Amino acid sequence: MRLSVTEKIQKLKRERNAVILAHNYQSAQVQDIADFLGDSLELAQKACGTHADVIVFCGVLFMAETAWMLNPQKTVLMPDSEAGCGLAEMISAVKLRKLKADHPDAVVVCYINSSAGVKAECDLCCTSSSALTVVESIENGREIIFVPDKSLGRWIEEKTGRKMILWDGYCPPHHRMLAESIERRKKEHPGALVVVHPECTGDVRRMADRVAGTGGILRFCRENPAKEFIIGTEPGMAYRLEKEIPGKKFIPAVPGVICRNMKKTNPEKVLWSLEDMKQKITVEPDIARRARKCIDRMLDVTAKAQTE
Ligand code: SF4
Predict the structure, then answer these.
(1) CB of 172 sitting under 6 A from ligand 1
(2) Ligand 1, atom nearest to 233 Cα
(3) Residues in the chain with pLDDT < 50?
(4) Which end of the chain is more exposed for a tag (fewer CB within 10 A), N or C?
(5) DSSP state, residue 3
(6) Pair 191, 214: CB distance under 8 Å
(7) What are phi and psi of 261, to 5 degrees?
(8) Could you tell me if 86 and 112 are in contact, meaning their C-beta atoms sit under 8 angstroms apart?
(9) Residue 57 is inside which H or E element, if any?
(10) Which atom of ligand 1 is nearest to the CA of 260?
(11) What is the pLDDT of residues 185-229, one digit of tens each?
(12) Mutate to test the pocket of ligand 1, among 40, 231, 234, 257 (most ligand atoms within 8 A of CB)
């Protein structure tokens, strides 16, 4: 009997003791075969706690690097290792070292959307869901460098009142979401609440009823009694929301604005990667050791905040 792609994946997963982690921006087909869906923080935490020998990471390169750095004894596979992140590529370790040289006393915080090499230069890492907690954990009066996302950085400044030195990076898909598009959607759906990601521009964030990372968007839409939501983030998120919160309507703010890198993975590539045990993601040991410190500090700060 011929097995479907999904059945072949399930069989290989059992044979290899593998787990499939997928980001909320993955396609519907990939979300449907994942064992666990989440935002960057949830996936990092899941990677930390898994008993699987093999992690198949459906996301972009910095996420798979993070998963491996948290689990160097495990095999981390990326079905398409060419899936990079346009935002992460806007800064390099060399450029960051130059900025640090101008501000030798600054605490350096990076968004998790950065390469292992950049993380190795930083004191602390954060995700969009942990950003406020992480920055608030830094003692008042300390100079802070925040890289690479200037929109997330400005949102943190607005929420915490902390002034930071921001890198001039941005997420290309989120920056293509314009205030005009949100206005149009609001006219079409006057009762809908607007929920956007902090990677959106200030103009878009100011129109929102709620600004949150993808995990926070899910919680807000689940808990809020409203029936319609305009979702200002990558449209893959709307699929997860529809599946997990039946009876409510989720309208992508700009359906055509997708993250092409997030859409490079598909079920066939997941299957091939499990068949051939490719493409293995690792990080050079010294970089991994230093980058791991800044990821661990984020996990410590967020774990402490969650128990308080
Ligand atoms: Fe990077 Fe933006 Fe794509 Fe996220 S949506 S992976 S930040 S380019």
Answers:
(1) yes
(2) 5
(3) none
(4) N
(5) P
(6) no
(7) -65, -40
(8) no
(9) strand 54-58
(10) 3
(11) 999 999 999 999 999 999 999 999 999 999 899 999 999 999 999
(12) 234
Joined tokens for residue 198: 């902090």
236 Cβ closer than 6 Å to some ligand 1 atom: no
Domains and CATH numbers, the chain: 5-84+262-282 (3.40.50.10800), 88-170+287-307 (3.40.50.10800), 177-252 (3.40.50.10800)
The residues that bridge with 276 in the sheet, in sequence order, are none
User: Nearest-5° angle of CA 234, CA 110, CA 160?
Assistant: 85
Q: What pairs with residue 251 in β-bridges?
A: 230
Residue 292 alpha carbon to ligand 1 centre in Å: 21
Using DSSP, how many helices (H) and how many strands (E) does the chain show?
Answer: 15, 12
Q: Please, are residues 113 and 297 in contact by the beta-carbon 8 Å criterion?
A: no
Q: Which atom of ligand 1 is nearest to the CA of 88?
A: 1
Ligand 1 touching residue 87 (CB < 6 A): yes
